[in-house]
Amino acid sequence: MLLAGAGAVREFLEKTIDRHLLIQEARRIGLDGDPGIREAVGTLIAQRARDALYRDEVTRRLDVPEDAVQEAYGKMAYRYRVRHILTYARDAAEAAAARVRAGEAFGAVAAQVSVSGTAGKGGDLGFVAWGQLDPTLEAQVEEMQPGEVRGPIETAQGWNILLLEEKRAWAERPDLARVRSRIKMLLSQRAASRRSLEFFSHLRGRWRVQIFDEALGEGHLLDGQAARPDAGQAERVPVATAGERTITLGELRARLNVEALRRLPRSWALRQARRILDDAIFASLLEQEALRRSYDARLPIAREARKREEALLLDKLLATVIYPRVAVAEEETRAFYEQNRRLFAEPEAVRLGAIVLETQREGEEALEELRGGADFAALARRRSRDPASARVGGEVGWIARGTADPGIEAVAFSLKVGDVALAKSAQGYVVLRLEGRRPERLREYPEVKEEARQMVLGQRRREELRRWLGRLREASEIVLEDGAIGRAVAMYEEQARERAAARESEGRAATTEEE
Hints:
By secondary structure, the protein is of the alpha+beta class. The protein has helices spanning about 5-30, 35-60, 65-75, 90-100, 105-115, 135-145, 175-205, 220, 230-235, 250-255, 260, 265-290, 300-320, 330-340, 360-370, 375-385, 385-390, 405-410, 445-475, 480-515, and strands at about 80-85, 125-130, 150-155, 160-170, 210, 240, 245-250, 345, 350-355, 395-400, 420-425, 430-440, 440.
């Protein structure tokens, strides 16, 4: 924009002035006190402050030491053949473990009781190595001996039983250089998870948290609507207090997938609901702690909040003050349609099938197959280099004139229905088949009445906005200094030349090094 000269700068400044005048007017008439705007801006500030605090306390400065990488890589020296049973209830896991220890085949028990996706395979996880299991289960497996059964073991997924069938050295273990980044990523994720739990514990110690167990029973969370408070009551039923905030039953319900929870054993479903409540408490405590530490005053957050408020103010002014003055009569819409029929013309279009290939020779071979009786859809699925169209047998759909690659369009619109031909495009070579043709036509007024009304409405609104801006400009003192604009343009152009020269110098240096 700036390199286009003073004219472009002046145009940008004029638009900026118009926007500021409208925002000032919105503030003058009190729209900045609108509850919806204040709530939206407050929510944004709280979210950004919460996220920034979480980054600072949990995910930032997660340095993985080299000895931890080496230790993890050392654990990858072995692979473990593991079978697994997962249940949602401890008593079901204990019963399954007892059956296995009494001599029943682990795979048969897993097929009957496990809720894991591996139940159909008798709980067989195959060979796994470090980093492929839940850390809790991973630690158990590393200590086990072949033939040993362990469990029940509780994880976030449920209650687990493990059978180690075999432990073997991993002869094909990748070199450390190939897996270092993955190891560091997994270690960072695990460290972040631990830090998150520690920080949650810290916040719960700093801010008073109280959970109202009586509000978290089956009747409130899982039973039918008749057994639970209605929506209005739910908004007022507290399930927890977190610092200075109250979390209501309605807020908790909004986070729950009640239908999914109802399919789980009641005890596990209620535990899952408590975990989701913990997430809500953690988010609330993060927001309060971030605001206590004045994260909302940080420049990036304050700047984004101001931009959001200004955008909302502008939208509110347009929607409630300026645009409601504009109305469009039926006769105006009809007159616009009659005077601008070309806008409502539907261009000629063709429906195509396409097989995308790399070379002309491939295209000619495909044409020969088609002319020899090959099925177009089957050939497209087999040979087309475009995965999207290949999956649907080369079907492209309707293409309007003037919207396709010129090479394709020239061939496509010259074909008769059923014809095939080879076209060259930016993608390569394309075998086309014409499936259908639709001539240009004028859409009738009833079809486009609403579309035409919106066009007229847009014109009227722009005219009304210009009138408003004219009045606001008349009431304001606006000074654009040509000298300052010229100096700014010169400065930015000089900076651009310096950057271009620096890039050119870097390019020459890189070329010299390669030589």
